Predict the structure.
Amino acid sequence: MQSSLLRRSSTAILPHKRTSLFKLPYLLIQVALVIAVAGCERTGGGTIGPGVAVPDIQYKTLSGETLGLRSFRGKAVVLNFLASWCAPCESEMPALNALHRMIKDHDATVVAIGVDDDPGRLKEFAQRTQIEFPLLVDTSGHSHRFFKIAGFPETVLLDKSGTVMMTPDVVGAGASSEPVVKFVGPRDWDNPYFAELMRKIASR
């Protein structure tokens, strides 16, 4: 079923002589939601994959308090994994701030996770980049184990129930042009496509 859906989806986003190119972002968002539903129908297991529910992984806030991912249930989440020493991570922060501003009033949010990093350096990173969304600290290796983090930045989209979404990777210089469960490398997060996508996910 999933393969047939993907075939229909891939043809849906091709320009047609009667289809305005300005409508393509909307069509891509519809494709993203179709792919997500298809993934939910057939995927399970204990690690990242489309339709997999994320466990209540416990992280630390920059002030030292414990906060689990379950705290963000009820909101669609752009979950961004970073490191304070990572230049591409720092360069995409303004775009993530802009995305957060576009979605925060629509039951959606950006959440960043600093992985295997010093809390003091992450505080400096947050101040330097003027992060407007939660930045949590992972010193336990949970992100590596569940999300299979191999480098930085990497980003995962979650729906309001904490389920991993599979969406087309079609915007930005690093885009693969294929459906993904994880965006590897920086993206143009301030592109209106991502804001509309997250609003659609949050409305489901």
Remarks:
- Confidence is low (pLDDT under 50) at residues 1-45.
- Residues 57 and 142 are 7 Å apart (CA to CA).
